[in-house]
Amino acid sequence: MNRRSVLVVLALVATVGLAACSSDEPGDTTTTSTTSAETTTSSTATTTTTTAPPDEQTFVGADGVETTIGDVSRIVSLNGDLTEIIFALGFGDNVVGVDVTTTYPPEAAALNDQGETVGFAQLLAAEAVLRFEPTLVIGDQQVGPPEVIEQLRGAGIPVVILETQVTLDGVETKILQVAEILGAQEEGVELADRVMGEIDAAVELAAADDSDPKIAYVYVRGPQVLLLFGAGMPTQGMIEGAGAVDAGAETGVFGPVALTPEALLAAAPAVIVLPEAGLAALGGIEAFLEIPGVADTPAGQNDAFLAYDEAYFFNLGPRAGQALDEFVRDLYPGIGG
Amino acid sequence: MTDSPGLVASTDPYVSRRRWFIPVVALLLLATAWAALSLGAVSVPSGEVLGVLAGKIGVDAFDEPSRQAEAVVWGIRMPRLLLAFAVGATLGLVGGVLQGLLRNDLADPHLLGIGPGAAIGAAIGSAAGGVQGAIAGGVTAGVITAFVVRRLSRRASIDPTMIILSGVALGAALAAWVGFVVFAADRSTVPPIEFWLLGSLTGSTWRALGTAFVFLLGSSIVMLSSAHLLDVMGLGEADARHLGIDVDLVLTVLLIAAGVAVGATVGAVGVIAFVGLLVPFVVRRVTGPSHRSLLFGALASGALFVAAADLVARLLIQPVEIPVGLVTAAVGGPVFLWLLTRRRDA
Fold first, then answer.
1. Is A30 among the domain residues?
2. Which of A41, A112, B182, B341 is the most buried (most CB within 10 A)?
3. Does residue B294 lie in a domain region?
4. Which stretches of B104-203 are DSSP H helices?
5. Do B42 and A127 touch (CB under 8 A)?
6. How confident is the model at residue A18 (pLDDT cuts 50, 70, 90)?
7. Cβ–Cβ below 8 Å for A8 and B215
8. Which one of B202, B214, B226 has the shortest CB-CB distance to A19?
9. Please, what is the average pLDDT of chain A?
């Protein structure tokens, strides 16, 4: 072994040594706490109006990070359901940027059309958010990548991450949390009461029917994207709220899975629910029936398809009760007169 | 540019080329750095960009930067630029070393399967500990894959194309395993398969840069110091042994260094294709076969290539960013093909 190779080996040993040191560094320096979102209490219990935001308050998000929220005059909302709630609480004028999938309310959709979008909330880039000079960024646990959230916080922007809600009960939590963040607790309670009242009424209406049909939610967006939704999706909450059985969840599907003829046949849904715009992009029900397996399901044989605007149907926001009511009435014709 | 390399005995035809190569690359590096720091979805006036930079070295000059300008230039663009430089430099260097080591112009860390192999470990590591876990996992898996490549290359040493073919097969199989890991893992912690196989610098933070840099610097020093050994090994294994070089040791050490280097880049930014293949290939035409100038040239040019490609990835469809590996492959593929046909014609 000559001198050169000895040097090489020494350098290598040094590398490995350094590397070992670096990997021992503490992983995360952000403030973490195990407080769950539900037990979070706000220090500002005083009444506030939509025009005069509270001075400063802290909120512990679903990621355990405590965020100090002051100015809410420039909000970037990363999820369509949260955008709907912010608008319903009367803070729509404060929303400066939304994610690209946002379609409601029309004012928010207009932001999207004007290019005032951050792109896809799951594939964010820091500057795409920062260009709005937001004073508050709000999203749920689906947004990412986590490094970009870290970059935004590093830039001094308050980023609140809320727990992703997939049940009808979660609608209340979601509304109250957004209201708390905006310092509009009173409006929040009011909105939550109204929406939960609508949801309860729709659930009660559905209970008048004893049948429990199997219903599958199939997500289509043109011919390339065909997914069967299962457990843990907001559609499960809607279907079960309507007194029906989620066919996907029942056959063991978790989350969204690629639709296969066999999975659909195994799920044997009596009714298939679809997103309106995606179905139109595919070419309507006729085109959907040509997908292998579809025509052989009970739904296909009885032509039992329902299509709703996707945000309306599964955003689980302020329109959830309304959507559930419409869904129940479509599902059990003649119910409730 | 027309003479075939390595056949001129008395004079070194590369001297003049090397003379302009350094200032040209240095100028392009500076221009890229300036563009990367001053362009983006958030518009920051040049005066404020300079103000941020001046402020960091304790000089109170140019425009007083706003808080936003400071956050964007120093918190987001700077770590991203430096990570692009570090990753590009290392990939260029690894390519140069592997091509010399295996005496094969087509050797490339990702073509040989080291990149996809590292991505498996990185994806598993990211589930456990974010970007630092990803880098640690990438380094571990990168070294292991480098040794698998070594075993394969020993068997296939008679035929250089066999090394590449077996590497391509290995890489395809390993890339599939990256997919299995990603789909089995929790999507909120493990980045998607596009990140691992196409690469992205979107998530560049100072923390990611710091962790990766330790590995990249260490392995790069090892690789750069091997230039002379690679020159001798270029004579052939038997001649190198006669000259007193422990060929097996050199192979082992350099493959470990390559595995560490590739693993750290993959853990930080995913697989960025074509850098390790194209950069040394081009640089060799300018600097000649001497590994000392080749390796340093590949280092600088790799940094330039990746930083420029990331600039395109970031600015092409604002505010959406496309994977940087798409840009390097879209540019690198055709350029490489063109060079290959030119070589045949020459």
1. no
2. B182
3. yes
4. 114-155, 160-184, 193-198
5. yes
6. very low
7. no
8. B214
9. 84
Residue A27: list chain B partners with CB under 8 A. 129-130, 132-133
ipTM: 0.75
pLDDT at A17 over 70: no
A262 touches chain B (CB under 8 A): no
Angle between helices B46-56 and B14-38 (to 10 degrees): 100
B258 and B224 Cβ atoms separated by less than 8 Å:
no
- Give residues with Cβ within 8 angstroms of B335, minimum separation 6: B278, B282
**Whether residue A111 is found in the same domain as residue A225:** no
Looking at the DSSP assignment, which residues form a beta bridge with residue A59?
A67
pLDDT at B158: 55
Asked if the structure places residue B133 within a domain, the reply is yes
In a domain, A13, yes or no: no
Contact B84, B157 (CB under 8 A): no
Nearest Cα residue in chain A from B229: A4
Alpha helices in B39-113 (DSSP H): 46-56, 67-70, 78-101
Residue A43 forms contact with B (CB below 8 Å): no
Instruction: Categorise residue B103: left if φ over 0, alpha if ψ from -120 to 50, beta otherwise.
Output: left
Domain that holds residue B98: 82-345
Residue B239 to residue B256: CA distance in whole angstroms: 23
Tally of helices (H runs) and strands (E runs) in chain B: 14, 0
- A138: domain CATH number? 3.40.50.1980
Sequence-separated contacts (24+) of B8-14 with Cβ below 8 Å: B12/B288, B13/B288, B14/B286, B14/B287, B14/B288, B14/B290, B14/B293
* Å between B342 CA and nearest CA of chain A: 37
Alpha carbon of B225: minimum distance to chain A alpha carbons (Å): 7
Domain carrying residue A59: 37-164
A137 CB within 8 Å of a chain B CB: no
pTM for this structure?
A: 0.78
Q: Using the predicted structure, report yes or no on whether residue A3 has a pLDDT greater than 60.
A: no
- Inspect the interface and report whether the beta carbons of B319 and A1 lie closer than 8 Å: no
Residue B343 vs residues A75, B2, B4, B19, B295: alpha-carbon distances, Å: 57, 10, 9, 24, 21
Chains A, B: CB pairs < 8 Å: 142
Q: Is residue B43 part of a domain?
A: no
> Which residue type does B31 have?
A
- Summarised one tens digit per residue, pLDDT across range B123-149 is 999 988 888 999 999 999 999 999 998
| Amino acid, single-letter form, for residue A144 | G
Side-chain-facing half-sphere of A243: CA atoms under 13 Å = 21
C-alpha distance from B250 to closest chain A C-alpha (Å): 7
Chain A from 96 to 115: CB within 8 A of any B CB: none
